[in-house]
Amino acid sequence: MAEDKAKKSDEPKKSLKDEILDEMTAELDEEVHESETEMDQVMAQRDEFEDKYLRAAAEISNMNNRFKKEREQLVKYDGQKLATAVLPVLDNLERALQTDVSGDAADSLKKGVEMVVTHLQQALKENGIEEIASDDTAFDPTIHQAVQTVPADDAHPANTVVQVLQKGYRLKDRVLRPAMVVVAN
């Protein structure tokens, strides 16, 4: 023990000021370390929030693009339902025009029906609805519906439309109703 006292006496005795300074330095070092830890946590939270924000912004952008496309589709094919409802009426009027009539009253009536058909066809055309050309064309299952086949001959080679039983129509690039046709086989 005498040696311990001798060692302690050999060490310079710290003044109160030095002890307080050492203690304050240790506390400050501890606070700085805690602050760095807290700062790391805050930075991690910030990065997480930034990631969530970027993902949400991307999702909103995707939704806006999807809604824009849907609106464009609605505008592009506006009137499709009305057109499909009107096409059978046009068919019936065209069939009425194919009947033979006699007498002045019947001729007048036929002329009136012709005018209605012409106006209806013009209204459809103005709204982007067009007839699918099918006479003497190659059979295309995307725009034709084969309801009957006949043997191919010189005038009608195989896989060509021989006769149109019901006209087909399309709205821009969408088929509203395929043409019902007889196909040479």
TrEMBL record:
- As recorded in Swiss-Prot or TrEMBL, the protein's gene is named grpE
Which GO molecular function, any one, fits this protein according to its record? protein-folding chaperone binding
* Coiled-coil zones: 25-66
A GO BP term here is: protein folding
Highest taxon, organism lineage: Bacteria
Q: What's one GO-annotated cellular component? A: cytoplasm
* Main subcellular localisation: cytoplasm
Region feature (Disordered): 1-20
- What function does this protein fulfil? Participates actively in the response to hyperosmotic and heat shock by preventing the aggregation of stress-denatured proteins, in association with DnaK and GrpE. It is the nucleotide exchange factor for DnaK and may function as a thermosensor. Unfolded proteins bind initially to DnaJ; upon interaction with the DnaJ-bound protein, DnaK hydrolyzes its bound ATP, resulting in the formation of a stable complex. GrpE releases ADP from DnaK; ATP binding to DnaK triggers the release of the substrate protein, thus completing the reaction cycle.
Identify the keywords attached in UniProt to this record, alphabetized.
Answer: Chaperone, Coiled coil, Cytoplasm, Stress response
Say which family it is in.
Answer: Belongs to the GrpE family.
Subcellular localization: Cytoplasm
Q: Which InterPro entries match?
A: GrpE, GrpE_CC, GrpE_head
How is this protein organized at the quaternary level?
A: Homodimer.
**Residue spans of biased composition, Basic and acidic residues class:** 1-19
Know the name of this protein?
Answer: Protein GrpE
